[in-house]
Amino acid sequence: MHADIEHMCAHSAPRQRLFTPGPTPIPARVQTAMAGPVVYHRGPDFPALLRGVAADLKTVFPTPHDLLLLACSGTGAMEAAVANTLTRGDRALVAQAGQFGARWADLCRAYGVDVNLLDFPWGTAIDPDAVADALRKDPSIRAVFATQSETATGVLHDIEALAAVVRQTGTLCIVDGVSSVGAHPLPTAKWGVDMAVTASQKGLMLPPGLGIVTVGPRAWEATVRSDLPKYYWNLSAYREALSEGRGPATLPVTLLSGLRAALDMIEEEGLEAVWTRHAWHAGAVRSAARALGLSCFAQRPSNALTAIGLPEGIDGVALTDCLRTRCGVVIGGGLAHLRGRMVRISTLGHVDDLDVLTAVAALEMGLKHQNWAFPPGSGVAAAEQALAVRQE
Amino acid sequence: MHADIEHMCAHSAPRQRLFTPGPTPIPARVQTAMAGPVVYHRGPDFPALLRGVAADLKTVFPTPHDLLLLACSGTGAMEAAVANTLTRGDRALVAQAGQFGARWADLCRAYGVDVNLLDFPWGTAIDPDAVADALRKDPSIRAVFATQSETATGVLHDIEALAAVVRQTGTLCIVDGVSSVGAHPLPTAKWGVDMAVTASQKGLMLPPGLGIVTVGPRAWEATVRSDLPKYYWNLSAYREALSEGRGPATLPVTLLSGLRAALDMIEEEGLEAVWTRHAWHAGAVRSAARALGLSCFAQRPSNALTAIGLPEGIDGVALTDCLRTRCGVVIGGGLAHLRGRMVRISTLGHVDDLDVLTAVAALEMGLKHQNWAFPPGSGVAAAEQALAVRQE
Asked: What ipTM was predicted for this assembly?
């Protein structure tokens, strides 16, 4: 059967279209780079590759700080941040409003760090004044941990404001930029962020497996005092090895080749243009959601993903299943207590305007299937209108 | 210019042929699998993929023990073994005869574990009697760490004999199988090995980035007592998550898709046949080395790689450079104090008979370039002869 006809058949599987907040779609150019000859990590071509991507990746945050690459997921990079800066019995403040913020607390506790948990309701943004207040009350706090884009709620926390209040104390400010870097600026030095981490499978358009840590001067100072056990996460070893053009352990060389291509793509589009594109795409999804009578969950929405709250009568689990099986559109569902009550549509990474309209059209089909009442096409129309303003 | 003619030109770059002891060549089938649609790690297709590769990978060791997959290099998997089984102040015995054996000691020390280092000369094999002796002298030793195939020296340590002496005590036996699994059997339960680790970029024919840990019942018991801090390396969390068909942190989904293809290839060839192929190929390289008047460095040679000791008058660094630049053949050099005095030719993973002859032919060209006297073609002839016996 002809492939195009096959895809139109009700019983055949549609092509997969990924709108999940990581992993994100891999551009063909990145795939091709990763399928090229494997670079031997002890060979003469490796140092230039490693140093090149480590240097150019700084511009994406942007940061002038040291940037280190590890073979791990984002959680591993977060663990490296904790293990290198703190000491057993230290006090840390974790400002969180979602599942990924809570991970900082779990990591700290695993290392015997005493956690002051500043909990904000899911969907809201961290209040910098509350953080300032907590720091005033407990001057023994060594580090403040937060998340820039909370993937569980679609909230963009105001790291600039948060870092500003932390900066007024001697406390370290450490930020999870896993799902934000590439979609939003995270200028660590300018804002006063001492460490920031990210990972490959989000705005960097790569498969998962590469963890990224930036380390500023105050964070390096803290490493001297830190006595938490570490070997694989020892960032000083990574810094020393990077200066020699290698990793202390085997680095994921194919991901580095892919990262080279991804960074070239970002540079060619222009970083500002990449950020603007994310803003327009996320804005279009929000417009579509509102036009369909749904609500945006995030008080301060991230451009990495849009969390759409579902009213009574729409089953979020059935909705994501329907989109996947009928349209091949893979989106995220609600996590933890929001399971079934939310869908999360990511426009992070390698996404263009028509992709966004595709996702919205699939959402319409899924909502129709659940007998949700709305004028057919109204979501797509709203998204088209939002995108058209940009193109004018 | 026609591609074939281009490759014959002295000034054009030859095609790369990888004979390094990791990363090893990636089969086209594995590349294709990794270039397929990215599997969403929270989607419905992921649990079957994860459980399937975790189950089938057990047959490659072979092991009936739990098998867990982590996003990390082999060193990360080694750290997980240490961090889950020991407690600060514990005593461990590290039996080592090369750079990768020494890594166990570094890892233990980073966690405050007291190391009894049983050092054997590079090129020799661990003496199980010496281990038995050390365990008798110090019954407080909690774990014995060793390496199966020492990549720095090309030695295959006798893990069966080592585990047998460790088994006579209550001590754990933990083995680095990073460069051996896929080339040699490592039947953990049968031999009495409590934990074994490996990684993706060796006999499993994948890019680096996937760490693998097997955990037997005695090792699980030890995890209960272990109080070393861990979050990313917490193997109990991986076991629990695997039972739900997921990872506690984002797993490298493309490597899992590649692993599926690699395991299918191993199954189709037959595991015994894969081991036999490695034996013949390494044997052919050893025959060639001897025919060329060179020596095999390893007392008890591994089939994963062949370490060839170089006599005075041959510069190993220049030799590896020459092979790379003139022939595109990438081999390993001598590590640490053996730099310049050794070459290491790997026949690990996706290697066929003609690949072996290619590597030997390149070695001949490199030796000729250094005015080493030998009958031209004698290395290839010896390798051909060794391989011909098999084909009869």
From this structure: 0.92
